[in-house]
Amino acid sequence: MKTPQEAFTQYLSDENLKMTPQRGLILECILEQTQHLSPEEIYDKVRKRDSSVGQATVYRTLKLLAEAGIIESLDFADGVARYEVAWGKEHHDHLICEACGKNIEIMDPMIEKRQETIAEEHGFKLSHHKMYLYGLCPDCRGKR
Amino acid sequence: MKTPQEAFTQYLSDENLKMTPQRGLILECILEQTQHLSPEEIYDKVRKRDSSVGQATVYRTLKLLAEAGIIESLDFADGVARYEVAWGKEHHDHLICEACGKNIEIMDPMIEKRQETIAEEHGFKLSHHKMYLYGLCPDCRGKR
DNA sequence: GTAATTGCAAATTATTTGCATTGCC
DNA sequence: GGCAATGCAAATAATTTGCAATTAC
Q1: Structure confidence at residue B143 (pLDDT)
Q2: Mean pLDDT over all residues of chain B?
Q3: Is the Cβ of A16 closer than 8 Å to some Cβ of chain B?
Q4: What is the percent of chain A where pLDDT is above 70?
């Protein structure tokens, strides 16, 4: 399978867009991170390596990366946009602790299958879905 | 079961807050609507009946109504915040058409059950969840 | 009476856009 | 070389907040 970098270059070229040092650097910074990042955090990280990069470029590049399917946007209901690397990873959903923010990636074939079925029953062609489970993790559960 | 109005009054009183004409009017406007409303749309609707109500009051009241469990916020990934009446309604998820925005409420006991199980397996106490299925509806499907 | 609420406008926050300049293919 | 990309600053958009005046309980 192509690396994220190769995939991005490919996507850009397919769309008649260009690879640039800025775009490469932004992708690098995202790939190094294991956490779910906000545009602001990515911007900070990028600037440490090249302070000349503008915030607008980060936003523009995030949009491109999402269109290319390399990253995916999340919604943890904490008021901040977040992204995670999607390239080469299997689809998964999130189980989020409302108290400490901890989140666990979950994967469940049964639910995925059922979602397909539900969509079909309504005549829909499913393209993607988002599922978030909110609750209290074992640690925070005890503190209440 | 209490009416939404009664529930809201109850909630306010429990929190040592006060019922006001503005709050009552805002709730009324939300209840009359069957669609999923944005703060802006609610504000417009409220102003038609009482043009002196401020936008800030609408935002503040929406927050209270959500805390009281009378309305719930949605995320249709169209960049706008939306609310729907939750009081007295069974929980449901949404199947959304990416082309025309049409959305269908879905309910699936099997998925609900499985979500509980998954949370338990990770030691979580589940409080709520959100699930959105995105795709193309029968109408839009044909046009591609 | 007193603390909560309101409307207003200003302040924030998050993101987007216009534009002259720069740089990739 | 030509079109796309960049950085900057200004522009939007959506929401929040400070505050003096008002009002519910």
Answers
A1: 59
A2: 91
A3: no
A4: 96
CA of A57 to C1' of D9 (A): 14
> What is the structure's pLDDT at B78?
67
CB pairs under 8 A between A and B: 108
With a CB cutoff of 8 Å and minimum separation 6, the contacts of B137 are A122, A123, A124, B97, B99, B100, B102
Q: Cβ of B51 < 7 Å from strand C? A: no
Please indicate if any CB of chain A lies within 8 Å of the CB of B92.
no
Task: Say how far apart CA B57 and CA A5 lie, in whole Å.
Answer: 48
Q: At what angle do helices B39-49 and B21-32 cross, to 10 degrees?
A: 120
Low-confidence ranges of chain A (pLDDT < 70): 77-79, 143-144
Q: Are A28 and A44 in contact (CB under 8 A)?
A: no
Cβ distance B129 to A131 less than 8 Å, yes or no, reads: yes
Of B110, B114, B119, nearest to A95 by CB-CB distance is B119
